[in-house]
Amino acid sequence: xxxxxxxxxxxxxxxxxxxxxxxxxxxxxxxxxxxxxxxxxxxxxxxxxxxxxxxxxxxxxxxxxxxxxxxxxxxxxxxxxxxxxxxxxxxxxxxxxxxxxxxxxxxxxxxxxxxxxxxxxxxxxxxxxxxxxxxxxxxxxxxxxxxxxxxxxxxxxxxxxxxxxxxxxxxxxxxxxxxxxxxxxxxxxxxxxxxxxxxxxxxxxxxxxxxxxxxxxxxxxxxxxxxxxxxxxxxxxxxxxxxxxxxxxxxxxxxxxxxxxxxxxxxxxxxxxxxxxxxxxxxxxxxxxxxxxxxxxxxxxxxxxxxxxxxxxxxxxxxxxxxxxxxxxxxxxxxxxxxxxxxxxxxxxxxxxxxxxxxxxxxxxxxxxxxxxxxxxxxxxxxxxxxxxxxxxxxxxxxxxxxxxxxxxxxxxxxxxxxxx
Amino acid sequence: xxxxxxxxxxxxxxxxxxxxxxxxxxxxxxxxxxxxxxxxxxxxxxxxxxxxxxxxxxxxxxxxxxxxxxxxxxxxxxxxxxxxxxxxxxxxxxxxxxxxxxxxxxxxxxxxxxxxxxxxxxxxxxxxxxxxxxxxxxxxxxxxxxxxxxxxxxxxxxxxxxxxxxxxxxxxxxxxxxxxxxxxxxxxxxxxxxxxxxxxxxxxxxxxxxxxxxxxxxxxxxxxxxxxxxxxxxxxxxxxxxxxxxxxxxxxxxxxxxxxxxxxxxxxxxxxxxxxxxxxxxxxxxxxxxxxxxxxxxxxxxxxxxxxxxxxxxxxxxxxxxxxxxxxxxxxxxxxxxxxxxxxxxxxxxxxxxxxxxxxxxxxxxxxxxxxxxxxxxxxxxxxxxxxxxxxxxxxxxxxxxxxxxxxxxxxxxxxxxxxxxxxxxxxxxxxxxxxxxxxxxxxxxxxxx
Lengths: 421, 450
Prior knowledge:
By secondary structure, chain A is α+β, with helices and mostly antiparallel strands. Chain A has 14 helices and 11 strands. A 7-stranded mixed beta barrel of chain A has the order 1-2-3-4-5-7-6. Chain A is globular, with a radius of gyration of 25 Å. Chain B is globular.
């Protein structure tokens, strides 16, 4: 009897274990089979999850890879397969990218999913950037800056870290950057019908009027949408913007310019760049750079979108008015008291937001923690691991001191102009 | 060239410059008109010595003009002087959109050359196209003393494809089939053994050539083509001995193989009017193989021809993982039929009309139709087709063409052809009219052969 009771007891446990382990396992397996996408986390939110270091693998024919390294200055596309979390996207186009960051050692890459296969997307993306973080010894300035733009309500590309492998060889720590393209417009503005231009740096240009010929503007503004439209449709509104910006100083300057650009959004964009001490942005050291120009369909009013912020956090002590008088648009806009007040207000907002709960300091700490492991293994990065640590330390100091300095200077500026909020 | 000039020049030349035409069948010496190299030439005129080895004894170094101006240098030695002029008047929806004009385009070809034989033992031919960057066409000699084993060397068409090896003079349509003109090798430098055995019912050709012909070759140095090429063709006339309506039936098969360097394929998809509908951007390496099957039958005034050609280019080590990809494949076929409404036997040749136009007869009038298709892709298929250079499944394209034509052989020198063509391109975005799958074309060709 005893043994029978024992036997019954064991059987109950077995049934219980069966119920609690086997059946959930079956459900999980069914979920995998029936909906592999969900189980594998196939959303852009997963890809751009800021708290995870992703792993992306590219397979490139060895001949193509050799040529890609040798001809890194060219924008020639090569075929590759991209693998992420068990998914393999075949026949994607990969090319070298970047201006100052373009190099043959740690390749900066652009991946186009529909380059060779019409309509092919990856998680709804048509392309993405694998940023080599080449010019940023901290490996985190770009990510922290874009997160800050987003925090301040300015649309910015999503980013996450990844370990990149090409043909199973570790290439280092990269940033996966969301392309600013039609799907980005759809995500941010709810429509991809607008006109989008990537500013393509040609020479130092501070917004002066370049003349009536559209061909002069064309090299500076690479269309990302409406690529097949006539130049007059694409570039005439851009020419008009700079013509009006350089127009006579009269009572209707602002009214005319605001037909071509959202001045308040421009001021907000520049204020955030100034808070972040951006060296290579709209009022960068070498003229305008690293932005996209967006014009909604049916409108002539342009807006700025941030791009490539790896030269931010340059100088914690930098004045909030540094180089604001070099750019025609910014200089003249800040001549209007309400726009100047807005500029200072946004700087205040930046300072308070960065300091709120030590957000910026915590962000830097978190990114440094994510990056430090892969950065130590990254033998292809331009700077040493010691330089990485030093750069992170410098940005830590920036994060803790910048808000106070900016608030003080903004207050002084208000006091000087009698424009006290 | 204006329409008036195109219409008038052959008539003027024919009425002013040609000698009086004999209504009699051509002599054996006359028989070289329109021949092309190779023992399996589909020219419908008999080959020298093919029917009767008897030759009239001619005085040495005597100039004659039968079908060609000809210099006879002694027994069995002769040089024929040849010339052929062509003018095309073309009209196409695609051309109109492409060149933004409505007047069509004329294409003139001028070929001159000499051909002949030496002591009944060696045939030779030297032909050039004037005004062409690559002027030399056929430049070869053929040792022919034994019908079963002949040897031919020089620059001539590889033994592959019935249509490709049919002389331009004797084409049933203005343009060769897409399969033949795009996939058959064409001419190259080489040496070939050939002959007829089994009571001439079985013909064979086996040759080695420096490359795989010039048909697909382009000036683009990034494109690769076949290296040293082995080519063979066998044709069989199973009812040759029957001497009835079946006797002309001929079936054949051909094969070539060539090594390929690594690079982009030179094979392209082009329409009859030379508009591109497919330009492969895929890496290839390994071997190129062509296989072909052919059929020809010419009972009475009718004829039927058909061919299938398939070219496979290996892609060894070309995947993104450096592994092999499925071969790139180009395939084409056609089925064509003709009817000489004036009743002449097709197998005897229509290019020397028994009732010539300028001698009171109608010449020969023939109607023709052809259905054909040329396609590009890969051996592997599936839904994930891509235009990527290293795609396992190639997103290719195809062109289907229906051609309807009328041929008028006015006399042995003048031939006029009119064709209406309907092209249907599967993926029009790669074709001459990106927003249309189908379009019409027409072409009128005037040809003068001396």
